[in-house]
Amino acid sequence: MKKPNVHTLYGITHSLYTGRARSYLIKSGVPFRELSTGHESFKDEVLPESKLATIPVLVTPEGEVIRDGGAIIEHFECANGRLFQPSSAKQQIVSTLFDLVGTSGLLRPAMHYRWNYLEENEEFLHYHFLHSQREHPEREAKTQYMMSKMQTAGVLFGVTEATMPLVETLYLEFLEALNQHLSEMPYLLGWKPSIGDFGLIAPLYAHLGRDPAPLRIMQQRAVRVARWVERMNRADQDVAEFFNPGDDYLADDRIPETLMTVLRVLAEDLVPETRAAAEVINQWLAANQPEPGTPAQGLLAGRLFGMAEFSMRGQSVSAVAQSYRFVILQRLQQQYMRLTTPQRLDVSDLLRRCGLEALLSIRLDRQLGWSDNQDIWL
Q: Which of 19, 26, 86, 72 minimizes the C-alpha distance to 335?
């Protein structure tokens, strides 16, 4: 493989998880070029090393291939002294919580507002799906196939005609609460982005902050969130509307009440689904007993653990159980266990007041690890 003199990010503009990695590279000042997965180099040179045909994938100047946005971020965080990881107890846990929310907890509204508002979104989406591929005779047919497959996949995440009103209600409540929080500061925990900001930008950029229908809603109902989406894709701090800005996280491990309000809204969805997903995957683990080192992550609509059934505001929801949710939850629980006893008490009290304390005890019966660009069972 010819080694470029900058990092190469393989992804697509409308990809949820690519947005997470791209934002991190921008804010970190990492020089990179971005290529579509339609480039022959992805299939011929990158895919054999990345193992799964998912994005984003980063190729370093030295030729190392790193698949998955979380692994890409971890690669640089290890190298730069964890520049975007708060060091104080509550802020560190809250940052990881928002990473969990962004990568798993907002998939329902992301899928809903993209695929159930096609009257507004279809031309925009068609352009992006079409031009993620090289020109070839079957390009239009493949575009239609990919769009149809993704539209159908929305049901796997719990988006049905019956649940659509609830999905919208919870998302708009979240949007309103986050908008209020961002009236006081430009990022989740103060004056610089955290790992949580990068997790949250994943759905709030590619799906909810670019697709025409949800973008209209965000710009009309949550202008501060729309500005945060812009800010997360700028290399500078981008806080011109704040006249006395700081340059770090909030002092004294402070978690603003406005951010706790955001977490309370998210808890209504995040906790019941996480509990139900854990039960489904644990049943699968008991029945299948995978060998240590077995890959834990399958392709969308491929090998599934099963559907998780849970209730939100008295309404039944069914969504596919996914192991990646527990990769980040496991990290959160490990962070919690490394805290001192007084710090744990503070964190537990914070999560209890937000309705999220159950996340400290919900876990899989097998731990997850990372090897050869894949999540594996330990």
A: 86
